[in-house]
Amino acid sequence: MTEDIRICMPASAAAPGFTRTLMERRLKKWGYSHISYDATLVATEMVTNAMKATPGRVIRFLCRWEDGAVYVAVWDSSPGRPAPTRDVESTLDDLDLSEDGFDENGGRGLHIIDALAQEWGYRPDPVDPRTGRSPGKWVWARVATDPPPVPM
Length: 152
What we know:
Elements: E1 5-10, H1 15-30, H2 36-53, E2 58-66, E3 69-76, H3 109-116, E4 119-124, E5 137-144
Antiparallel strand pairs: 1-2, 2-3, 3-5, 4-5
């Protein structure tokens, strides 16, 4: 299968929605509308994390079909290892639903990716010998195109 999505975009608030639109259209074209919700949620969570790690910079997005799964990868210029920022065991009482604090309720993206992806991980770029730093990282996930067998 061909027609990968490979795009650079600004790490802005518009990036997750743009990614969702690209993914939905491509998955429909590939005949994978049945995994569209899971795959687009994984992709938008990854793009959101990259956007928050490197606001105003450029991020890269890749989506392709490979070996029975949709492979999604996002590059950003932060060398930091992706890590969840919140405990997944939150209750409604833990949420700040005020207008000023609503956006602070995030931090569940990696838990969502972990729940929906067949597998996921990250790969830091090689260290630049001139600076001694890694120029960034790729975070990737694979979303299975076929549902797992139902246990009997």
